[in-house]
Amino acid sequence: MERRQFLAASLAASALAATRNAAAQTPGGSASATHTREYYQLRRYSLQSGPQLKLTESYFGDALIPALNRIGMNPIGAFKIDIGPQTPAYYLLIPGSSLEVHAELELRLAQDAAFMKAAEPFWNATAAAPAFKRVESTLLAAFEGWPKLTPPPSSAAKAKRIFQLRIYESPSCQDHVRKVEMFHSGEFELFKNAGFHPVFFGDALIGPILPNLHYMLAFSSMAELEAQWDVFRNDPAWKKLSGSPRYSFDNIVDNITNLILSPLACSQI
To answer: Using an 8 Å Cβ cutoff, are 252 and 170 in contact?
Structure first.
């Protein structure tokens, strides 16, 4: 764990140095972005079909999300995986203003009497009837150029929406830093021109498959998703950026995980 944390810290410092100047020129970026950007905990709950699904969703909606809101962590995203490996699974996206609030989260939840009462069926599930199979968590730092989570307008209206979660793994620290830099050097603007609604961009600090970055996009339908990606990939500006020797010198992303999620009823995103 110490080695992983050291690597993560090195990656974060390198990415910060590589993107600081570009951040001021990007959507949401400013000279003070490093002081205001969020940190995200992305949890993946591996489940079994049957009672675990209802129990976990009730835990999110009745216990965990209200408690997180009381701490000041909001909005919380709660999703089920529609397209991707190892289903069924739920994802929970938890934004926080600092690393400290994430580090202290479990302690603060344990001191919340209302949470503990509402969470009892989930927390006290027996080995014979467990609430879940496993939970995997990744800690992310928001990109300087996109320092805040931005829910789509459809979230407030609880309108139909889907989300695409993409994970880019890089073969080396240098390649990872170059890919983060690439977003700050024009890719944000290309997303905007294609009509995308980005929810967040995050650099993984702690978690599996380091080094990697995560980002999430919102759409009204799969048809909109496919149409907007067609616009993006055919944009001459994207072809110029992706063909730049600074970013095409190596295969800077060697694996992409692409998931399609839909919001649970309790989701605030």
So the answer is: yes
Computed over every residue of the chain, the mean pLDDT equals 89
DSSP states along 227-239: HHHHHHHT-HHHH
pLDDT at 51: 96
Tokens of 266: 């309790």
| Domain boundary assignment for the chain | 2-263
Q: Between 65 and 2, where is the model more confident? A: 65
Structure tokens at 93: 């996206």
The more confident residue out of 180 and 156 is: 180
User: Of 268 and 36, which is predicted with more confidence?
Assistant: 268
CA atoms within 13 A on the CB side of 2: 0
DSSP state of 133: S
Cα–Cα nearest to 222, from 269, 152, 162, 262: 162
- Give Cα separations from 177 to 8, 212, 238 (angstroms): 12, 10, 19
- The label of the residue with tokens 């695409």 reads 164
159/175 Cα distance (integer angstroms): 38
What fold, for 2-263?
Alpha-Beta Plaits (3.30.70)
By the 8 A CB rule, do 45 and 64 touch?
Answer: no
* CB 180, CB 18: distance < 8 Å: yes
Kindly state the helix (H) or strand (E) to which residue 214 belongs, with its residue range: strand 212-219
Contact predicate 262/80, CB 8 Å: yes
